[in-house]
From TrEMBL:
Protein location: Cell membrane; Membrane
Domain ABC transmembrane type-1: 91-283
This protein's name: Dipeptide/oligopeptide/nickel ABC transporter permease/ATP-binding protein
Main location: membrane
Species for this entry: Paractinoplanes globisporus
Topology of this chain in the membrane: Multi-pass membrane protein
Length: 672
């Protein structure tokens, strides 16, 4: 473990060096470097300019309207005032107004946009209403009116005017982005780990919008400087306070253009244009500074990783420590139930009181150490069931009936649906965790893998020291077969299989008793699928947790699962031991699913599949939902919703199947 921690420390040192190289390479790009130089130049002038001014900008002299000379580098006004000194003093005011207005405006945009987008509901309606009011008001007339009422308020008044009229558009953009981000799996994962709302917004939502916020900030600086110059030019500010706009105002009042005194107005206009250009050039390169996908920092990291690999080969790696003893293997005769789902019903509420039953009267049990596979076509209710079990569903989804009971190792039962927010926060990840189906979406793209694993630990174990957390992160990476030097990698730097392993590591972070895996092998090739499945089985046998494995791939499920549940139209249509299901599926839908997969041994057969499409749950067919596609359907199938019938198997176990062909009282009709 000491060697592993040393590897993490070396990788941590490589990260900042790689980051510095990325900054240097980005700054080496001609356009970005030019923009940075221009911006820094004007910022320095704004800070030290008044001390460098050769004259008092308001002092008059006999050199009236003098052209540029050695004595007056930018000439003089009609009162003999030195324009160069006015430019140096004016830079401070213009820059102060631009940056100050941008800070206030951006703060308001971020505050309103992120809160409205993430919180939703009444908060979204209220905050969006406020933003919309400012959006529909004409900005320029409003700015002029407000500035006219605050003529003697100085720079602070102008900052207030520009901020109050310019924040709404940025808030609108950030709200739209937040609405998109809050549905991403990595936000759901953060919510599932028990992170507070403020922490999710600051760590998961905000970092993914830094590029937009930075671009908005720089654009607001430019816009604020132009607005201040425009207001000063119109005489709506304190014209005795020197700024670039004030210089243009006095030039216009004194008809500098008509008298040919070009040196009076050209420097101020050129300074505004140059600063705006510099900020725009910086804006072009800002994504490269912030977005890890665009950082070309791989060279330094790879060199450090190669050095770590060489040292690792010379160091005997110790086996990872696990927090629980080896588990007793699961057997089909086990009666140690860890999770009971009874008559669960999940509806999606629509307009005018309508509802769509996505999960309808679902009942099953999960035993300790068992792998329960849930199969079915898309839209059968599998993922909705997973979100209901973990209490991650959001409106308009609602659990309208049923019960979910969890049994702790000490025998105490927990009503999952009765947990309050704090109890639910403690329950998730400690007792039950989830691995989402798309690892690229479930992992935060702007946080390193190690940080994301540590987040789950920090949320539930705040008393754990940083060193202990680092050890646990390394241990988890080794546990799922990821080299410790990848602890500082970003998600896009990992392969699909490694990302999925990282998600499994996050799910295992707190040694939960149950892990819900929602199609964890989706979009992976068969070789990687095999590796992921083998790793899941290895970890399950080693750590003793139970698994609810959701997929539409029956061939994978039969190999992995102890028990299989088949869902159709939001209901369970068959429940059986995996081997019994494979040898003798009882429901016509299950037979159709199995007939869709080729066999690797035995005689070749024609793949038949299932004709038709899954039912529309908003308007389901009467009776059995499968009867429009069923080759064995008869008249009663369109009238009666079949319950689960308990059937004997050749192995002496029982299989449950929801089909009327097993009810002799109604199956004597004519088959179709």
């Amino acid at each position: 473990m000491v060697a592993a921690i040393n590897m993490e420390a070396q990788a941590s040192e490589a990260g900042p060096r790689a980051s510095r190289r990325a900054w240097l390479r980005a700054l080496g790009r001609p356009l970005t470097a030019t923009g940075v130089i221009i911006t820094i130049f004007f910022a320095v002038v704004a800070i030290i300019g008044p001390w460098l001014a050769p004259y008092d900008p308001s002092a008059v002299s006999d050199a009236a309207t003098a052209a540029p000379s050695a004595a007056h580098w930018l000439g003089t006004t009609q009162n003999g005032q030195d324009i160069f000194s006015q430019m140096l003093y004016g830079a401070r005011v213009s820059m102060f107004v631009g940056v100050g207005a941008a800070v206030v405006s951006t703060f308001l945009s971020v505050l309103v946009g992120l809160l409205a987008g993430y919180l939703g509901g009444a908060a979204d309606e209220l905050l969006s209403l406020v933003a919309n009011v400012f959006l529909v008001l004409p900005a320029l007339p409003l700015t002029i009116i407000l500035a006219a009422y605050l003529p003697n308020s100085g720079s602070l008044g102008i900052i207030f005017v520009i901020s109050i009229t310019g924040w709404a558009w940025g808030a609108r953009v950030l709200r739209a982005q937040t609405l998109s981000l809050r549905r991403r799996d990595f936000v759901e994962a953060a919510r599932a780990t028990g992170d507070r709302t403020s922490l999710i917004i600051l760590r998961d939502i905000l970092p993914n919008q830094i590029a937009i916020i930075a671009a908005s900030f720089l654009g607001t600086v430019t816009g604020a400087i132009l607005t201040q110059a425009g207001l000063a030019f119109l005489g709506l500010t304190d014209v005795t306070q020197w700024s670039w706009g004030t210089i243009l105002y006095w030039a216009q009042v004194s008809s500098a253009l008509l008298t040919g005194a070009w040196w009076w107005f050209v420097p101020a206009g050129l300074a505004i244009a140059l600063l705006g250009t510099g900020l725009s050039l910086v804006n072009f390169g800002i994504d490269e500074f912030i977005n890890p996908r665009l950082r070309q920092a791989g060279i330094g990291t790879r060199k450090a990783a190669r050095g770590i690999t060489k040292r690792r080969r010379a160091t005997r790696r110790r086996p990872p420590r696990v927090s629980r003893p080896a588990a007793v293997p699961f057997t089909p005769d086990s009666t140690d139930v860890i999770l009971e789902v009874q008559n669960l019903k999940v509806d999606y509420l629509g307009e005018y009181g309508s509802s769509t039953p996505a999960v309808n009267d679902v009942t099953f049990t999960l035993r300790r150490g068992e792998v329960l596979g849930i199969a079915g076509e898309s839209g059968s209710g599998k993922s909705t069931l997973a979100y209901a079990i973990t209490r991650l569903h959001k409106p308009p989804a609602t659990i309208s009936a049923g019960q979910i009971l969890y049994t702790r190792p000490d025998g105490a039962k927990v009503d999952v649906l009765g947990l309050n927010e704090q109890e639910l926060r403690d329950f998730r990840w400690e007792e039950l965790s989830i691995v989402f189906q798309s690892a690229m979406n479930a992992l935060n793209p702007v946080l390193r893998i190690g940080e994301q694993i540590a987040d789950a630990i920090k949320a539930h174990r705040p008393q754990m020291t940083e060193v202990d957390r680092a050890k646990r992160v390394i241990e988890l990476l080794q546990l799922v077969g990821i080299q410790p030097d990848r602890v500082r990698a970003y998600p896009h730097e990992l392969s699909g299989g490694m990302r999925q392993r990282a998600m499994i590591a996050i799910g295992l972070a707190l040694d939960p008793e149950i892990i819900v895996m929602d199609e964890p092998t989706t979009a992976l090739d068969v070789v990687i699928q095999r590796q992921i499945v083998e790793k899941i089985m290895e970890l399950k046998d080693k750590l003793g947790f139970s698994v609810i494995f959701i997929t539409h791939d029956l061939s994978l499920l039969i190999e992995l699962s102890d028990t299989i549940v088949v869902m159709y139209g939001g209901r369970i249509v068959e429940r059986a031991a995996a081997q019994d299901f494979y040898r003798d599926p009882r429901h016509p839908y299950s037979r159709g699913l199995l007939a869709s997969f080729p066999t690797l041994s035995g005689p070749r057969r024609e793949l038949t599949g299932i004709p038709g499409s899954p039912p529309n749950l908003r308007n389901p067919p009467p009776g059995c939902a499968f009867h429009p596609r069923c080759p064995l359907a008869f008249a009663a199938c369109s009238e009666v919703v079949p319950p689960l019938y308990q059937l004997e198997t050749a192995t002496g176990r029982t299989t449950d199947a929801a089909c009327l062909i097993y009810d002799t009282s109604v199956s004597e009709g004519t088959s179709r």
